[in-house]
Amino acid sequence: MATRRNDPDRRDRIIDAALSVIAEGGVAGTSHRRVADRAGVPLGSMTYHFTSMDELLREAFTRFAERVSERFAARLSAVASRDELATAIVDLVHKDLVAGPDDLVLTLELYTLAARKPAFRKITHDWMRRSRAVLEQHVDARTSHKLDALIEGLFIHVSLDPTPHGRDVTRDAVLQFLSS
């Protein structure tokens, strides 16, 4: 593998490679060597850029959560009515939250890591805070909290069910929730 003396994008490539490796083999299957190979960088670059695997995982999952949050915010930015909010949420659940082929796996890997290691909960807390802040542009704080949990549950069910319900069922659930 050829090394580059001036490689300003190396750190970013390592982070993106880490996400790819995690999606493929989980956090448990992620090693410095596998990430370095995927990023096309010398193994020594790993310890140069990251003091530990936990630091790399924090950076990778933070990047992932921020990307998903940006899609979430973009989808809800133009919403002007309750009906448009319901439509936007349906699109989030059925399209945006699974925009990348690895999004479900990365989401669940992050949740598992945060459940096992409290230091990673800050990433999930920040992610939830950003989602609720976007929702609070359309509903009150209490409703945004519950609506965020509903969206998460719907996303997981739609993603994992071998015969997922359709957009109409999601829309009905959201409209029913918003009417209560």
- What is the level 1 CATH name of the largest domain? Mainly Alpha
Low-confidence stretches: none
Q: How many domain units? A: 2
Helix content: over 70%
Number of strands: 0
Distance between the termini: 60 Å
Please indicate the percent range of residues in DSSP E strands (runs of 2 or more): under 5%
For the residues shown, what is the average pLDDT?
Answer: 93
| N-to-C series of helices and strands | HHHHHHHHH
Find the CATH superfamily of the largest domain. Answer: Tetracycline Repressor, domain 2
Describe the global form: elongated
**Which secondary-structure class do the elements indicate?**
mainly alpha
Q: How large, in whole angstroms, is the Cα Rg?
A: 18 Å
Query: Could you please say which CATH topology of the largest domain applies here?
Result: Tetracycline Repressor, domain 2
Please, how many helices?
Answer: 9
Give a quick account of the main beta sheet: strands, pairing sense, barrel closure: none
